[in-house]
Amino acid sequence: MAQKSLTTVIVTGAIAGIIGGGVVLYGQNSLENLQTSTQKVNTKADKTVKIANNATATTAYNKISDAVVSVLNFSRDGSNTYQESSEGSGVIYKKAGSDAYIVTNNHVIDGAAQLQVMLHDGKKVIATLVGKDAMTDLAVLKISSENVKATAEFGDSNNIQVGQKVLAIGSPLGSEYASSVTEGIISAKKRLVATTSENGQNYGGSTVIQTDAAINPGNSGGPLVNFAGQVVGINSMKLSSSSSGTSVEGMGFAIPSDQVVDIVNKLVKEGKVTRPAIGIGLVELSAVTVDDQKSLLKIPANITGGVVVMSTTKDGPADRAGLTKYDVITEIDGKKVMGQAELREALYKHDLNDTATITYYHHETKKTVKVKLTQKLAN
């Protein structure tokens, strides 16, 4: 199997000239020895409303612009004074009594000694960190609701369509250009991008929305918005180049709103996200040659999608359920698994200690087992 060229995805979020300790994500699908993780999707988001025929970028922008903010990351220097180190974007999504909550990217606030938020009217306020999740690159901040005029509405990212028009709103190159808006389309509803933290922690694949709306340094944490003015994603990264040096334009990525709402709810409630793991190393069936499918996997010829178990964690959930090397998982809880993206999406519905139903092929024999997800993913 030919090795794919390495594609680098640079997470945006630093002001011009300052790379603020962001996470670097690699687009190469290196899936062996991956310990698949899960998170429960509990959108609690309003369903995407029908977009009016006369809806425009202007009407969508006006509906949400007051909720979009700049997030300022300050470090402490040797003389114990604060110095601004980077900037990103965020969106106010909830008011509760005297508090207002903002979702942004984890890499925007990473390493901050102090956080400030610049509201749409230019007023700056101190923010406190509620919780953060490096795997999904999300964080929640809290500010006083005293000066908050508007909150954003989440749409259902499952209802977006390829070719649908969207806006990216944020502070490219810093708060000097706050509330900048760019327009594009949804290029793909689900892209699987492998993620690796700055310290080398492999987070496996993240399912993201691909858009050609311009996303620049400083846009990170800002909303991707449909023409109904609803948030369908949180902008997180931009594909900048490949190992061949080819210039890449018009490829930005956003975290889908169904994931965002689930994660921010958990961060507000618990300050962290705990995930179960199925305990397998895997490769997608589509990456296995036809000859190897016949000679090694020995699966029926009509099986065209799934993930191949390459290893199991000893005494882990999959191992205890009887899965072994070269078994091919084709369904989770009755939903088809064509590759890693579908596997993760199905498992996202479960919490630690939940039971998942896995359908797989051991050679030509189709089997279904109950797997208790007792293994916690290491963060």
UniProtKB/TrEMBL annotation:
The keyword Magnesium does not apply. Residues 276-364 form the PDZ domain. Gene3D superfamilies: 2.30.42.10, Trypsin-like serine proteases. InterPro entries: Chloro_Bact_Ser_Proteases, PDZ, PDZ_sf, Peptidase_S1_PA, Peptidase_S1_PA_chymotrypsin, Peptidase_S1C. This is PDZ domain-containing protein. Keywords: Hydrolase, Membrane, Protease, Serine protease, Transmembrane, Transmembrane helix. The keyword Hydrolase applies.
